[in-house]
Amino acid sequence: LSVPAAAMETMVLRGLALALALPSLALENGLARTPPMGWMSWERFRCNVDCQADPRNCISEQLFFEMADRLAEDGWRELGYKYINIDDCWSAKQRDEAGQLVPDPKRFPSGIKALADYVHARGLKLGIYGDLGIFTCGGYPGTMLEHVKQDAQTFAAWGVDMLKLDGCYSTAEEQAKGYPEMARALNATGRPIVYSCSWPAYQGGLPPKVNYTILAEICNLWRNYDDIQDSWDSVLSIVDWFSTNQDVLQPAAGPGHWNDPDMLIIGNFGLSYEQSRSQMALWTVMAAPLLMSTDLRTISPSAKEILQNRLMIQINQDPLGIQGRRIVKEKSHIEVFLRPLSRAASALVFFSRRTDMPFRYTTSLAKLHFPEDAVYEVQDVYVGKIVGALKTADNFSVVINPSGVVMWYLRPMALPVQRQYVRQQAPGNGFHSTLL
């Protein structure tokens, strides 16, 4: 293929202009191609630093050693839960004489490097917390602009694999300088460090104050909205905000850059069994990071079963990385969410906001904008069983418990002519489709 000289010159000039425009922004560290999965301390353990009165639950190296053991030994790591993330309140109250952040000597006597080594030896990764400001939200030393490079180098030297950079005690101007500066500083260390930003959450989460095109070039994931609390009201407020603003938020997500609605609180105190299933399904369909914040040492079998659902995790980690959307909001307080997946598959979540009794919801794939004349194999994500084959035009009903979900995984068995599929029969499972 020959390209005319003038066209080639134009292409080169455009490429050069793009290269000159982007180096100050582009992260492109090749990380977080699917939403990060793991465990984070904040929601469950907060800023509990009283290790004398509460040694088992305070923010200390012992807590992180024990959670790393649980991830490695209880089946979490093999499912993709690989990050052990330290949140606020880990450091000493002052930087050292060289201006370097140091861990609290009583609560982290071995140091962060030793903790990282322990985590890495178990096939896991370590995350840490910083704050772009005078102080962290918990009142510990923050990262002022003059400390950005130094702190990035410190984290890299310790063997850190993810940085969450909060935004308490900083101005909008400092954030506009500091968040891109930290991206550059992390890249300059040569260590692959996933970069989680709280920047949009401090600017209201929406344009014009938040430019998601720029943000996706700076951060691997970002907090858009309020901190999650251990309550169903908190979960609903986050789902409402993300759904209301999905036209802005949904296009911003993709491999390497994710909206983060905050931690999974499944296994704590505030959610019922049905509500726990709902949070997991809704976070999955939103292509959210799956960062648990619960006590893995005492988690109930039912909470563990929800969090370790293999098909759910497969959907969350789908390589296309398309964030789902709410596509139906009924007067009956039933909502439907759809996430397109690779190989022309889809995930559907039927979500009930009702508080009275199980509700029978009837619809069809045609009403949910699926292609005409297609046939799908339907699998119930929580039950695990194949529901059956479903044509686009067929009406169907699902029974949804109050505050609960029914979640389906739909694989195409036959699609309209523009897409070609072969059908391969698997013993006992009906037909499975392979995209040609």
Automatic annotation (TrEMBL):
Keywords: Disulfide bond, Glycoprotein, Glycosidase, Hydrolase, Lipid metabolism, Lysosome, Signal. Residues 1-32 form the signal peptide. Coiled coil: none annotated. Its EC number is 3.2.1.-. InterPro entries: Aldolase_TIM (IPR013785), GH (IPR017853), Glyco_hydro_27 (IPR002241), Glyco_hydro_27/36_CS (IPR000111), Glyco_hydro_b (IPR013780), Melibiase/NAGA_C (IPR035373). It is found in: Lysosome. It comes from the Eukaryota. Pfam families: Melibiase_2, Melibiase_2_C. One of its GO terms (molecular function) is alpha-galactosidase activity. GO terms for cellular component: lysosome; membrane. One of its GO terms (biological process) is oligosaccharide metabolic process. It catalyses: a globoside IV3GalNAc-Gb4Cer + H2O = N-acetyl-alpha-D-galactosamine + a globoside Gb4Cer; a neolactoside IV(3)-alpha-GalNAc,IV(2)-alpha-Fuc-nLc4Cer(d18:0) + H2O = a neolactoside IV(2)-alpha-Fuc-nLc4Cer(d18:0) + N-acetyl-alpha-D-galactosamine; Cleavage of non-reducing alpha-(1->3)-N-acetylgalactosamine residues from human blood group A and AB mucin glycoproteins, Forssman hapten and blood group A lacto series glycolipids; a neolactoside IV(3)-alpha-GalNAc,IV(2)-alpha-Fuc-nLc4Cer(d18:1(4E)) + H2O = a neolactoside IV(2)-alpha-Fuc-nLc4Cer(d18:1(4E)) + N-acetyl-alpha-D-galactosamine. PANTHER family: ALPHA-GALACTOSIDASE/ALPHA-N-ACETYLGALACTOSAMINIDASE, ALPHA-N-ACETYLGALACTOSAMINIDASE. Removes terminal alpha-N-acetylgalactosamine residues from glycolipids and glycopeptides. Required for the breakdown of glycolipids. Homodimer. This is Alpha-galactosidase. The gene is Naga.
